[in-house]
Amino acid sequence: MTYVISDLHGCYEEYIKMLNLINFNDDDTLYILGDICDRGESPMKILLHMLEHDNIIPIYGNHDISALNSLSKIGLKSKEVIDDMYYVVTHDLMDSDEYNDYLYWLIDGGKDTLIDYDKLSVSNKNKVLRYLSDFRDYAEIKVNNIDYVLIHGGFKDFDESKELFEYSLSELINERLDYDKVYYKNKILTSGHTPTKFIDSNMSGKIVKKNNHIAIDCGCVFGYSLGCICLDTMKEYYIEVSK
Fold first, then answer.
1. pTM above the 0.85 mark?
2. What is the dihedral of CA 28, 29, 33, 37, to 10 degrees?
3. Are 205 and 7 in contact (CB under 8 A)?
4. Which of 52-66, 97-111, 162-176 comes out lowest in average pLDDT?
5. What CATH number does domain 2-61+136-240 carry, 3.40.109.10, 3.40.50.880, 3.60.21.10, 3.40.50.300?
6. In a 3-state reduction of DSSP, which class is residue 237?
7. How far is the first Cα of the chain from the last one, in angstroms, to the nearest whole number?
8. What is the pLDDT of residue 85?
9. CB count in 10 Å sphere of residue 158
10. Residue 151: phi, psi to the nearest 5?
11. Domain ranges of the chain
């Protein structure tokens, strides 16, 4: 079976519960459409679990790229807390643009990722950095003779005749889709990035399917649920967020 989830945001407990709910095994494939990192407490536990499974396919989200850029600068070296909100690198001065990006990342959920990363052994830090650097930008797959386009975010200046590799990674992870628009007439576009409560207020915490789209970010980190869809059967699965 082929499954899709998105926007885990460090919600390790819900992630493991979902794998158990779908009875995920070596014969299955799971695509995760980005944003494993930031905002939740345990992104490193998720990444360390994912990297041990070749049948879990990660696709970049904007938070994963931000985490990778900042953690790559930090590397394996030590940090210190300067107040309750910020960490700084003590061994190198970043230039102003990099430093501003770093501070923005921390404010936008990166602090949780950094704290979790700092708990890792040197060996596991290396594993995580290598793994994060090897995510896919997108995926195109066929299930039951139906073509699916899997991305995190959206497109800028969309043209159905364009190949996915012609879009920049920044577009694919940062742009937001118009769910009242049909992008592909003969393909199903499947994405995360925008919590479904912002697509249809009546579908908060649920998967939204409309106009050849499947919107899979159900807002787990915001207290709604973690959603998963099986592309073979179109069955939807949900894990309610632990209180």
1. yes
2. 80
3. no
4. 97-111
5. 3.60.21.10
6. strand
7. 30
8. 40
9. 15
10. -140, 170
11. 2-61+136-240, 64-132
